[in-house]
Write a structure and sequence with these properties.
Length: 70
């Protein structure tokens, strides 16, 4: 994939997929809260951090080198 294509795909991922993932993550956390009760803060924060990084794992190749100049 060329640098130009990766830049375009990274923009699409950030503008479309990231908001969708945020809704999925918050819905998951709300479901866990309703199902099992509120988690302690020491368990909840790492869960949000984990979910913040998980969305990008399948797209590592797209984001690699996008910030560098041509």
């Amino acid at each position: 994939m060329s640098l130009k294509q990766r830049k375009r795909w990274s923009l699409v991922l950030l503008l479309v997929w990231m908001p969708i993932w945020i809704v999925i993550a918050v819905t998951l956390m709300n479901w866990l809260d309703a199902r099992f009760g509120r988690m302690p803060i020491w368990a909840e924060v790492p869960m949000y951090v984990f979910l913040a990084f998980v969305w990008v794992v399948p797209f590592r190749r797209v984001f690699r080198g996008v910030g560098r100049g041509e």
